[in-house]
Amino acid sequence: MITIKDVAKRAGVSISTVSRVINNSKPVSNEIRQRVLKVIEETGYTPNPLARSLVTKKSQLIGVIVPDISDFFMGELLNGIEEVGKIYDYDIVLCNSYGEPDEELKYINLLKSKQVAGIIFVSWKMNQKHVDVIEKANIPAVYISKNATEFDVYSVSINNFEASYDMTKYLIENGNKKIAFMKSSAQDNIMDSDRYRGYKKALKEANIEIDETLVKEGDDTSESGYYLMSEILEAKNIPDAVFASRDEIAVGVINCILDAGYKVPEDISVSGYNDIKLASLYRPALTTIKQPIYDMGAVSIRMIVKIINNEGLEDKKILLPYSLIERQSVLKK
After folding, report:
1. C-beta separation of 185 from 196 below 8 A
2. Angle at 9 between CA 6 and CA 15, to 5 degrees
3. Residue 250's closest CA among 92, 72, 110?
4. Are 313 and 141 in contact (CB under 8 A)?
5. Of the listed ranges 231-235, 243-247, 305-309, the one predicted with least confidence
6. More reliable by pLDDT, 220 or 93
7. Which intervals hold domain HTH lacI-type (predicted)?
8. What gap in Å lies between CA 202 and CA 205, rounded to an integer?
9. Separation of alpha carbons 141 and 146, rounded Å
């Protein structure tokens, strides 16, 4: 096995000089740098990552804290983070906090002990204590959270308020006035949700009074969507359309409607949010809001790498575009 000592001997330089070339830690003349790099290429020498981190006080590790690894959103996000991380030669240390603030804080300290080069912090709802602990640890961080824009931090998000407003307006423009709204309880109280606020704004602008009996909250699963829709149907308060804040909920809603003898979209239109893979495969195919989830992960780790390398970032808060995907679950006017 080729060691750093072997490289130094063949290049005719000291071990510390080879280390400087590898870690780009101190100035080295171009002639010596090229000589060392040539020997490294010829010998196939690979620096020991642990030894390298001890010298540079950094590692090729990015810590990622997520609230629920089983969630579809998180899976797509992690794909973007990991694939782009590999391009820049970074590995991922994944921490699943289950959305518990104490667990999130514990993992921040754990990642600090592992000398991660940066942290991507994903949370349903972040608070100032998270920011303070990460800043005190002096670790570059990018945040992905529905309320990240409220803090002076680097963040990646989409405008959930505007996206929900656009979907509700789309339903209204297609002749729906009685629109139910279903929200996941996993992302805090429905009354404070950006998506719910967008829904309310569109109804208000159309002079449609909100029927609170058509506003439901439950788990972000198809089973929950089925149960919530059954409550509405049993109350005989049949809506023209249902807007679910998650595609999984929307699938359950459609199943319940069909089991009750109604048709989608002829009797009740249904729309979702996120554009998971099932949305286009299900029948009727689901009209939904497409979030660039993979891109959110890819952009967040690219931001981290730029911060680590002291590259300039034009904006601290990156707002990615969304799109409304029209399929067959909403009856067109």
Report:
1. no
2. 80
3. 72
4. no
5. 305-309
6. 93
7. 2-56
8. 5
9. 16
Task: For residues 279 and 281, give the distance between their C-alpha atoms in angstroms, rounded to a whole number.
Answer: 6
* SS3 call for 207: coil
Q: Tell me which residue of 247, 240, 187 sits closest to 217, measured CA to CA.
A: 187
Six-digit token string for 256: 């319940």
Residue 129's SS3 state is: helix
Strand partners, 93: 63
119, 140 Cβ separation under 8 angstroms: yes
In this structure, how many other beta carbons lie within 10 angstroms of the beta carbon of residue 52? 16
CA-based radius of gyration for the chain = 25
Q: How many residues does the chain have?
A: 333
145 strand-pairing partners: 123
158 close to 319: Cβ distance less than 8 angstroms: yes
pLDDT for residue 48 is more than 70: no
* Residues whose CB falls within 8 Å of the CB of residue 295, separated by 6 or more in sequence, listed in order: 80, 320
pLDDT of residue 58 exceeding 70, the answer is no
291/275 Cα distance (integer angstroms): 7
SS3 for 246?
coil
All domains of the chain in start order, with CATH: 4-56 (1.10.260.40), 61-158+293-320 (3.40.50.2300), 160-290 (3.40.50.2300)
**Would you state the pLDDT for residue 113?**
86
Q: How much is the mean pLDDT over the chain? A: 88
Closest CA to 329 of 259, 242, 249: 242
Virtual torsion, Cα 87, 88, 89, 95, nearest 10 deg: -90
**How are beta strands 179-184 and 91-96 bridged, if at all?**
unpaired
Scan for tokens 């030894």, then name that residue.
Answer: 51
Q: Dump pLDDT digits (tens) for 182-192.
A: 987 755 443 34
